[in-house]
Amino acid sequence: MIYDITKPTAPAMPNLGKGLELPKLLFSQVSKDMQEAIAPLIFDSLASHISGTEFMYPDLTWKEICGLITAIVARSAGGKGQLQRLVEAIMRGARQHDELQLQKLVEWQKTVKSKGANKEKPVRPEVSFWFPPSDVTNAAFIQNAMACEQDSEHTQYYNLPEVEMADRMCGGHKQVTQTIRNVYDKQKAGALRATADGITGNPVLRVNMNISCTPGEARNFFKRDLFNGTLGRIAFSYKARGNRDGKIPRQGKYDEAFLDTLDQYIVRLQACKGRFIVKPLNKLADKMAADMAALADLTDDDTLWDMSKRAIVNAWKKGCVLYILNGQTWTKAMSEFVEWLMYYDLWSKNQIFGDMLKDGDTGITEAQKSGPKNMLDDLPDSFNEAQLEALRITMDKPKEGTKRQLRVWLFRRFITYSAQTGLYTKTKEKLGIRS
Known about the structure:
Elements: H1 21-27, H2 35-38, H3 42-47, E1 53-56, E2 62-63, E3 69-74, H4 82-90, H5 92-114, H6 138-150, E4 156-160, H7 165-170, H8 176-184, E5 193-194, E6 200-201, E7 207-213, H9 215-222, H10 230-233, E8 235-239, H11 256-271, E9 274-276, H12 279-299, H13 302-325, H14 332-353, H15 364-369, E10 382-383, H16 385-394, H17 402-412, E11 415-418, E12 423-426
């Protein structure tokens, strides 16, 4: 384990070394206080430029790089709006494509209106929007998914400035969970839909999405979806309230030099086709899975273990994007960055939903005090079984699990045991976590 996600301080983003030239370029346009929070969100729009490409996950399944959903959570006026400028730069080509598609529709509508009631109407043109409006209705969402599927199986990208917009897109709040599940798993929409032309369809949902909301909005919106897999399918990025330093954060200028360099990377994404196996990335995913199992044992938290499985997949997919951006080569710095993305996601969920995952429903401050907790931190360097049992009781964990937890900690080498004293002692391995 590299980062301690049980602490209130965010895991620090590693140095952006070789292979991370595009993230460095993008972060140059973002104020310093927002770079860590926005880092996980750059991949959703970038990955929407990839089609006809699959990567093998360590479980030997092939995955397309779609189904990425990332939510940035910060207080009002917390800097979330900087994402919009970055997204518009990344999606400039998609905007131009969509403007031409919209013009086709406008011309068709004009022609239809000019025809008399007894005249034959022209057929609606086949159009697909790659960067649809954020206030899209569910019918339009499904219809556009059908069009994108026919248009080289292109991925739609949405940037939702308000989380409630997901209700409109999904056809109501009760449908949000199912839509997120279908998007994440690249499934079909789940129901046949009829268009104005009488055409029905049930398209595969190739969608990437960014969502912006405040902590209160996130907690209220997802409070009924804490244990059905929804949270695991969404990567969260939490930005805590900053200091009152009285300084206005500085953003970039998005000048021509920046845009020209950015476009060179976009071309790499668009040109990449075929199937790939990135062995060092898969090795990293296996390592992260082992580390998450150890952390779940350290905290005795099954919810953390369940959420970590999809957090690893989310980070792995972002690693696939980096692989393409770096000319289909891998570096140590890229591994460090992907690993940080996974930990930052889990840390953010702990900060936002920690208490709710333990069936509480208090404010965001209380959430930061709850969630997964490293129980060794609350024990002395040397302790006995009774002390751990007492600690478990204070944390509402059954005392019957004490012996098992001690066995797991011994197996993980978090502690050692002295038969002479009857005491357990923390080991240096446990101290190998950085903030």
